[in-house]
């Protein structure tokens, strides 16, 4: 119980760097772990963009994040002892997001930023796109199996409450024929 109260207080200080919320609005965020023992239907996801089958990129559903936001979440969702023994605070934050949400398929993913032009086929060296966006991803359009793998409605609602917005579909950084380069199972 003390951990839940501590996290709830700490969550008041978390926000994405580019969001502007008042102290009162941040204080309204009440966060508890998702009870995965309670049955919940698969989440109703926003529809895929109409061009998802013909577009040269796969789509990824998720929420915008920054590295510092994930690190702060990890610090504030963990005990001081765990945080002090962890060398990779980003990994700790991602692990805590998985634990609190109960969604083990959650991953950090780099996508093209909204409105960014499609980069050339090469994504290395000087051709690498400069307009990218890191997100917390919950599902992908790459394969039928990945698209079927989605959070429960309770988990989805938890993420919406945490990020205070619905997720959106982002374009993958790599072309479809290079999907295999991602470490997504």
UniProtKB/TrEMBL annotation:
Quote the protein name from its UniProt record. Uncharacterized protein
Q: What is the lineage of its organism?
A: Eukaryota, Fungi, Dikarya, Basidiomycota, Agaricomycotina
Superkingdom classification of source: Eukaryota
């Amino acid at each position: 119980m003390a951990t839940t109260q501590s996290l709830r207080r700490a969550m008041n200080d978390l926000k994405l760097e580019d969001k502007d919320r008042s102290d009162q609005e941040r204080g309204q965020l009440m966060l508890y772990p998702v009870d995965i023992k309670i049955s919940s239907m698969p989440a109703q996801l926003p529809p895929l963009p109409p061009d998802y089958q013909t577009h040269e990129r796969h789509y990824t559903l998720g929420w915008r994040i920054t590295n510092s936001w994930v690190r702060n979440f990890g610090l504030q969702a963990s005990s001081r002892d765990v945080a002090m023994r962890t060398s990779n605070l980003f990994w700790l934050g991602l692990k805590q997001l998985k634990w609190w949400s109960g969604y083990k398929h959650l991953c950090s993913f780099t996508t093209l930023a909204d409105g960014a032009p499609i980069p050339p086929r090469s994504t290395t060296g000087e051709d690498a796109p400069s307009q990218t966006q890191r997100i917390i991803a919950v599902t992908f359009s790459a394969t039928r199996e990945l698209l079927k793998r989605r959070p429960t409605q309770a988990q989805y609602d938890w993420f919406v409450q945490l990020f205070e917005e619905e997720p959106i579909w982002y374009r993958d950084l790599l072309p479809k024929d290079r999907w295999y380069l991602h470490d997504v199972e």
